[in-house]
Amino acid sequence: EAPDDLQTLLELGRVEKEAGRYDEALKWFQRGLALDPESGVFRFHAGELEYHRGALAEARSHLAEAIRLQPDFGDAHHLLAFVLGEMGLDDAAAAAADRARELNPALGRAETNLSLDAYNPARYGELVGDRGARPEVVKSGYLAGYHLGIAYRQRGLYAEALRELARAL
Q: What DSSP character marks residue 137?
């Protein structure tokens, strides 16, 4: 009934993304961008999809534009930190993460929950809840993706876990 309704296009893209149909979701977000090129929200979602697809340069471009359009968009800064980190731009990633935490302190708590510091025996004793001591950190190779996938799964971040486990495979 309203093929150019921006909220409808946004929801259609979100539904496709949640179903794992990233190409279809991207089409909806791109259609929204064609109608509203100054939308930081559509830029953010397009950047998120490109990140999930492994297109880091495209993700970075969309997220940088989302931040230009909406400088206080904490989630865009947060996701940009991940993109920059995967690109090996550690200083820029840290700056983006710091800005995200400034804008939304809850994002810092989310990072702490994913951190391996939660396994630090010096801080928490040998066991933390039902988990054992801190696992060995693997910085590259398939085990890094596997361990990150397990960490995401333990925190209930199933889409992220699936992505990392697929990379490990």
A: P
